[in-house]
Structure formats: structure tokens, C-alpha cells
Design a protein that fits this description.
2 copies of one chain form a homodimer.
Chain A (H helix, E strand, L loop, with lengths): L6 H6 L3 H4 E3 H4 L3 E4 L4 E11 L5 E7 L1 H4 L5 E5 L3 E4 L4 E4 L3 H5 L16 H8 L7
Parallel strand pairs in A: 2-7
Antiparallel strand pairs in A: 2-3, 3-4, 4-5, 6-7
Chain lengths: 129, 129
Amino acid sequence: MIHSQTGAAGHETTTETQRLISSRKVEGTNVYNLEGEHVGSVDSFMVDKYSGRVSYAVMSFGGFLGIGERYHPLPWDTLDYDTALGGYVVNIPREQLEGGPSFARDEDPWVDPEYDRRVHGHYGLPLGV
Amino acid sequence: MIHSQTGAAGHETTTETQRLISSRKVEGTNVYNLEGEHVGSVDSFMVDKYSGRVSYAVMSFGGFLGIGERYHPLPWDTLDYDTALGGYVVNIPREQLEGGPSFARDEDPWVDPEYDRRVHGHYGLPLGV
């Protein structure tokens, strides 16, 4: 979750206070692509109840897709927090984001046990444990 | 984060779907003590931006303390998710919870770099990395 421009040094010099962010603040945080363009915002995120790890950021892309409220789960590891931008940076081309698995607000795609695998597959990631 | 009554076997038999919970659903989840008494609910939680781990659940205890909205950060590892209860179980005596570090809604205790250490210390836990 460290932006490549910040690197490991950013972590070492970061205080504990700066490391923590409230769940209510993550919700609504802007997301940018590598070109610095605003591509969406974090609507919510999925937590693994057992490991306590954040598994997915659920991104709202309605703004630029123009198809209303669609929610795109992104594996958390695809996002890097950029302290300068005050938001997340995702290293995924826009076309791949737009074509990624998505759902409407009243849908619960996670009932499909294969959904995890499908999302990770779309972004070329192995399904972590 | 596995309730002792569920144990490791509960993890092995849990599907990926059951493992994930939305941040919006964690907010508001009830918390019980080992006697099964309702002691509060999760108002929000703190995420480590770099590791992607949930560091604290911020509990709202206003109900039983009767002193309005007070927020008690609990190290995430003190909470176990109980699928039968559909909530979290905390193995901390009520007196210790009530006497724990807390703050009001308009306060941001995390600006104090020692706050992490103080909260962990109150609950007898080492400050993780």
C-alpha cells in the first residue's frame, strides 16, 4: 500500500498517527491513476473477518463511466496510498478498470464463492490466502 | 479474530464469502462480552494505510456508560468474530473497558504519537509493528 514514488523510506519516516486512517475516512477517499487523473472514489471496503486484513476496496466509478452507480471491487494490493495526493493511486489502465467485474448497489456478488477468484483473475493477481 | 468457541476449525470450513464483511457492515456490529452481554457496538475502525490491516475497532459505549457518546479504541486482536452471535466478542472485563482510553466525537487522540502505546498498554498488549 505504499505508492512507488514514496517507497519504503516513506514508511520508515511515517509516524503511527499518519499510518492510521478511520474507516469512515477511507470511504470517500479519491483514487487516481498513474497519470494523476481522478478515476473514482472508495465507496467502502471488504475486510477479512478472521485475518483483520482489508481484502478489497469497493470503488465507485459512476462519475466517469456515466452509467450510474456501479461498484468495482479492487484487490487492496492494487492500491497505493499517496500522502502527497491524499488519496490512493491505482496502477491499472482505465480500460481494464472499466471492463472489470462490477455490481449494482442492491447486488451482493460475494454470495458467489468464485467471485474472489474472478476479480483477482481480471487484474492478473493470484488469490491470496 | 476467531472466537475461541469457534476455533481454527471454523476458519477452515468458512467460505470466502463468509470471511468477508463490508466496512459499512462492521460499523454498527454489536459487541458482546464473554458472558454474552451486549457491551457496545463498533462505530468505526482504524486501518493501517500501509499494511492494510485493521488496527483498532472504535467502540461506542454510550449506552451502558450513560455518559453520552464516548469512543473507546480497542486493539483489533482483542475482538473475536462469533458467527453464531453475528457479532464480536471481547474478552475484557467491563470495568477495564469502562476505564479504558476514550475520546469524544470531536477529538482526534491519534495526533498524540503515544496514544497507540497507551491504548495497548491499558489492555496489556504489546504495540505491534
